[in-house]
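Why do we care about 3D structure at all? Because function follows from shape, and shape follows, mostly, from sequence. That is the central idea of this module. The next example makes it concrete: a single protein chain, its amino acid sequence, and then its structure expressed as tokens.
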Amino acid sequence: MSSSYALHPEAFQDLDDIRYYIAQHNPDADRVVSEIFDTLRRLVAFPQQGHRRPDLTLRPLRFVVVREYLIAYAPEQKPLWVVAVMHGRRHPRVMAAVLRERE
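And the structure:
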């Protein structure tokens, strides 16, 4: 199965930022990012498995959690479009603002 997903340019930056932040405190930074990419590959096959977050956006995005990170993606787009990867403890207003900026 080919990985049929694409990252918003800022979502790619999200992953770089996550890796950098974790690496400062934990040698397992690559493992966390690998788990996120493994999840993305699984989402390609079953894009509807995520949940909706109407508190964050009215767009038809779905969300899935990997460790403490929330992946926002568009399940209907081909390739699967990853909009953002954010820490799940960010304030919901901040997460909503990030998603609005990435429309």
